[in-house]
């Protein structure tokens, strides 16, 4: 199973591709960050995020995309950017019929460290160990994206297969937006 | 000047096209709502919003897209959906080199009613009058989309022209997402 993990953000969008199955050693196929300049127009930044995600999908052909579920946090402006970047990532995957899974930060931390309240360093250390890397991926957004992918691989395989079938079916027969024109 | 107003939402995304210039009577070219089923997968709903917005852009070829600026409100779940739908609308416009303007609900209300705290009925009544319609557009999301378009037309024309030039230039030379692969 090949999963692209996405830690959404407008300034830094972490991306990481992991391959493997639950119970076996995992392999990292790629890790990186899609960056967009903070001084660009919001629309242009979203276009750049789209292009970046499309490149990762083209290059790695993941079977699943795992995106961090966005919650309202203290900083409203950051949350909006995160929600908008995550929308673009989900859109890119859904257009291709790739199932999208959302995992909360606590779920991801619990999956890779055993504790839903683990800190960044702990997550980085476990990602490094689980993927047998020489050093923790930097920045933290890149490590978080890999942790998301690992979290997804370790979910119930049966559930994943079902979701994959549903997403493929949905991409073949898209829901039609209902509009009306005066 | 032809403007597509978008009142973003996942369940109901209001859209309305208005043509005119400040100081002259305005014309409504179309109004509607892009709807997506609440029980569909989030990724599929975003794909449906994208298809709906693309249809409106294809049909009406607006020179500007005006989108309601999303604020964090009481209902976190609604705000996330609104932010995600607005991201899709901005993405569709920016990809085509159409400038995107964001207006707050207060700015829109103040523009069409004279008060930033006007209620839905008041906005609907003024939209009906300004566009010389037989009845207020329903649902409220559709009326709000028209109000957004009107608000945008009434902004300083010089500012709009500048923004248009910048957006076109940006679409011709898109900012490149910077990624790295391990």
From TrEMBL, chains A, B:
Q: Where primarily located? A: cytoplasm
Task: Specify the superkingdom.
Answer: Bacteria
Cofactors demanded by this protein: Mg(2+)
What are the entry keywords? Cytoplasm, DNA damage, DNA recombination, DNA repair, DNA-binding, Endonuclease, Hydrolase, Magnesium, Metal-binding, Nuclease
Which InterPro entries does the UniProt entry name for this protein?
RNaseH-like_sf, RNaseH_sf, X-over_junc_endoDNase_Mg_BS, X-over_junc_endoDNase_RuvC
Q: Name the chemical reaction catalysed here.
A: Endonucleolytic cleavage at a junction such as a reciprocal single-stranded crossover between two homologous DNA duplexes (Holliday junction)
Q: Give the EC number(s) listed in the UniProt record.
A: 3.1.21.10
| Residues that hold Mg(2+) 2 according to the record | 68
Residues that bind Mg(2+) 1: 7, 141
Task: Return any one Pfam family short name.
Answer: RuvC
The transmembrane segments are none
- The residues responsible for catalysis, as annotated, are 7, 68, 141
Q: Where in the cell is it found?
A: Cytoplasm
Is this entry keyworded Nuclease?
Answer: yes
> What SUPFAM superfamilies does the entry give?
Ribonuclease H-like (SSF53098)
What assembly does the database describe for this protein? Answer: Homodimer which binds Holliday junction (HJ) DNA. The HJ becomes 2-fold symmetrical on binding to RuvC with unstacked arms; it has a different conformation from HJ DNA in complex with RuvA. In the full resolvosome a probable DNA-RuvA(4)-RuvB(12)-RuvC(2) complex forms which resolves the HJ.
Record's function text: The RuvA-RuvB-RuvC complex processes Holliday junction (HJ) DNA during genetic recombination and DNA repair. Endonuclease that resolves HJ intermediates. Cleaves cruciform DNA by making single-stranded nicks across the HJ at symmetrical positions within the homologous arms, yielding a 5'-phosphate and a 3'-hydroxyl group; requires a central core of homology in the junction. The consensus cleavage sequence is 5'-(A/T)TT(C/G)-3'. Cleavage occurs on the 3'-side of the TT dinucleotide at the point of strand exchange.
Q: Which NCBIfam families match?
A: PRK00039.2-1, ruvC
What is the protein's name according to its record? Crossover junction endodeoxyribonuclease RuvC
Question: What is the originating organism of this protein?
Answer: Streptomyces cellulosae
């Amino acid at each position: 199973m090949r999963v692209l993990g996405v830690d959404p953000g407008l300034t830094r969008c972490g991306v990481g591709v992991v391959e493997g199955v639950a119970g076996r050693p995992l392999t990292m196929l790629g890790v990186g960050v899609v960056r967009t300049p903070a001084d660009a127009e919001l629309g242009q930044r979203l276009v750049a995020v789209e292009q970046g995600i499309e490149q990762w999908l083209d290059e790695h052909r993941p079977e699943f995309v795992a995106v961090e579920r966005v919650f309202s946090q203290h900083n409203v402006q950051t949350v909006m950017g995160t929600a908008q970047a995550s929308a673009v990532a989900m859109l890119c995957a859904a257009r291709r019929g790739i199932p999208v899974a959302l995992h909360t930060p606590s779920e991801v931390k619990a999956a890779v460290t055993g504790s839903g309240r683990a800190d960044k360093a702990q997550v980085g250390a476990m990602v490094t160990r689980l993927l047998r890397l020489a050093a923790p991926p930097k920045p933290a957004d890149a490590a978080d994206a890999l942790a998301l992918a690992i979290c997804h691989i370790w979910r119930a395989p049966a559930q994943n297969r079902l979701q994959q079938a549903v997403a493929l079916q949905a991409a073949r027969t898209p829901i039609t937006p209902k509009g009306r024109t005066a």
